[in-house]
Write a structure and sequence with these properties.
This protein has 566 residues and is α+β, with helices and mostly antiparallel strands. It is elongated, with a radius of gyration of 28 Å. The protein is built from 20 helices and nine strands. It folds into three domains: 174 residues, MFS general substrate transporter like domains (Growth Hormone, Chain: A, Up-down Bundle), CATH 1.20.1250; 113 residues, Elongation Factor Tu (Ef-tu), domain 3 (Beta Barrel), CATH 2.40.30; 194 residues, Growth Hormone, Chain: A, CATH 1.20.1250.20. Helix 13 packs antiparallel against helix 17. Strands 4-3-7-1-2-6-5 form a seven-stranded antiparallel β-sheet, with helices on one face.
Length: 566
């Protein structure tokens, strides 16, 4: 029957997949409310950069486990919509509690103001390295240090700066020290306004604060460990379930659509929703200056997501009806992973995941180090260009992947990563990074659709959600986690800028290696696909609709194994 006449009989909502578009728009809109500010929220609530980094590292490896697990549960129960909605409820509760938890309470930094000799004064205190570097690098942006001192009944305060010329520092000898480094800062006599008679008192007690509060904090109050633990647990659970829901959303899309090539045009509405709501939320927050803005908007949109998702029409995929459904067991998965094409597919997603581990959060940190006063503006424009490129990619993904083929598209993505990382290394002015963000067209838009289509293509009957979860778990979990660890070592121990050169070379090497592999396998498949008929002397060529690059399904693999045994 003609598909065109069938489409004409459908309602407007069904013909244009309005419910599925709304699902992606709302899901990623809720994501856009909290994603840009989650780490900033943790830091503003009192968590240190180290604690946030540890939470993010654990998160990546948990994503590698939760994504396939949630996909497996959905495949086993065949209730994708119900499973998705349960995930939305759980992570909404987790993030709501996270925002409502009390801040981690810390003492002010305790300091001693000393008189050494006429016109020479020093301020001694113990603090972490961040106290000095974060605020001092932003002195042009308005960040300053204030010392509040008391001598007997006389209170006074003064503002001072810290730089390499007026600071002496000594690393604490004992491992039990919680503050890290002893600092001695020279204080100009003019700052004290000559109001004090230091000769009668050689030391005065002071407290140090910063104009940006979370840059300067001392030792924490007792009993704060439980809150630190809760922040980490809620952040990890919430974010990992969001990632699992994201992967499951791809499976829902493929189960709802008549063809996999329509996925990109539906998913693009998620990016549109993310951009609109992320920007709108930031403006509303500027108006009210309350974190309740995030809590209220996030929960309202999450409730709408659950309602809309419940009405998505799910159809049985032809592959699931025409082929014998596979049993969900360990031997089935092992058989799948033994296939070389599946292994290559997952290894490619692993390297892309490592590249993501380098991009986030170290690109933003690098920009912040190079241009601390303009970093938020530059990063905002970088996200804007990346989002526009992503929207364009989703609309053109079908044509581009069909034109170049999945394998050549994979090589182009590697080269786009190389151009992007190479630019970060060789360009010294962060404002010139903006053109490089157009590479997000390939590094996320085309990449996301390509992975989703390939995972759906090679998934055996009954395992689409599981394989989608594995693919997303590898790129956003295992690969990103390993990349984050490697990036942390290079960025902190070796050199910040060198990090991007290393990953540029890694992607070039990967592009060369996989190009050779695809070329060799293409030649072998060309030979195998030519079947010579000995009776009629007719040469038949198998269908090359997928550019001779489609991966065999598990059913085909099982059939081949049966034939070999016979």
């Amino acid at each position: 029957m003609d598909s065109t006449s069938d489409n004409s009989k459908l309602s407007f909502i069904s013909r244009y997949h309005v419910i599925l578009k709304s699902h992606y728009f709302l899901f990623f809109s809720a994501y856009g409310v909290v994603f840009p500010i989650l780490n900033l929220t943790l830091r503003s609530h009192g968590l240190s950069n180290t604690e946030i980094s540890v939470s993010n590292t654990i998160l990546k490896f948990l994503i590698f486990l939760t994504n396939p697990l949630m996909g497996f549960i959905a495949d086993k129960s065949r209730r994708f919509l119900t499973t998705f909605n349960i995930l939305v409820v759980i992570y909404s509760i987790a993030f709501t509690i996270l925002f409502l938890l009390p801040n981690i309470k810390s003492h002010h930094i305790q300091a001693d103001l000393h008189y050494l000799k006429p016109s020479e004064y020093v301020l001694d205190f113990c603090a972490s390295q961040e106290v000095v570097t974060k605020c001092s690098s932003r002195s042009d942006c308005g960040c300053s240090y204030q010392a509040y001192c008391q001598r007997e009944n006389y209170l006074f305060n003064f503002t001072f700066t810290m730089n390499s010329n007026n600071i002496q520092k000594r690393l604490k000898d004992t491992l039990k020290s919680q503050c890290g480094i002893d600092y001695r800062v020279s204080i100009d006599e003019v700052l004290l306004e000559n109001k004090l008679d230091f000769q009668s008192s050689s030391m005065i007690k002071c407290e140090i604060t910063c104009s940006i509060p979370f840059f300067c904090h001392g030792l924490r109050y007792k009993g704060q460990t439980i809150y630190i633990f809760l922040y980490g647990i809620l952040y990890i659970i919430g974010y990992s379930l969001v990632s699992a829901a994201n992967a499951m959303g791809a499976s829902i899309g493929f189960s709802s659509l008549p063809g996999a090539d329509l996925f990109g045009k539906q998913r693009v509405w998620g990016t549109i929703g993310f951009g609109i709501i992320a920007f709108s939320t930031s403006r509303i927050y500027e108006l009210f200056r309350s974190e309740y803005v995030y809590v209220i908007m996030f929960n309202i949109i999450s409730i709408l997501t659950i309602i809309v998702t419940s009405f998505i029409p799910m159809h049985k995929n032809e592959k699931k009806t025409n082929e014998k459904k596979q049993k969900l067991n360990l031997s089935t998965l092992i058989t799948l992973f033994k296939n070389m094409d599946v292994f290559i597919f997952l290894s490619i997603t692993f390297i892309w995941g490592m590249s993501y581990g380098c991009l986030h959060p170290y690109l933003a940190l690098y920009v912040d180090e190079m241009a601390p006063c303009q970093s938020r503006s530059i990063i905002g424009f970088m996200f804007l260009i990346a989002s526009i490129s992503e929207v364009t990619a989703f609309y053109s993904a079908k044509r581009l992947i069909n034109f170049f083929g999945p394998n050549l598209s994979s090589i182009i993505i590697f080269l786009a990563f190389s151009v992007r990382f190479g630019g970060y290394y060789f360009i010294s002015e962060p404002r010139f990074f903006l053109p490089l963000e157009t590479m997000h067209f390939f590094n996320f838009g085309i990449l996301y659709v390509l992975i989703a289509q390939k995972a759906d293509l090679i998934a055996p009957p009954g395992l689409s959600g599981t394989l989608q979860g594995i693919a997303h778990g590898v790129i956003l979990g295992l690969g990103c986690g390993i990349g984050l660890i490697v990036s942390s070592y290079i960025y902190i121990v070796i050199q910040q800028r060198l990090l991007f050169l290393v990953f540029a070379i890694l992607n070039i090497v990967a592009a060369i290696f996989y190009s050779i592999y695809f070329l060799l396998t293409y030649k072998k498949s060309s030979i195998k696909n030519v079947i010579v008929s000995t009776d009629n002397n007719i040469v038949l060529e198998e269908d090359a609709n997928l550019n001779q690059e489609s991966l065999p399904s598990l059913a085909m693999m099982a059939t081949n194994n049966t034939e070999n045994k016979q």
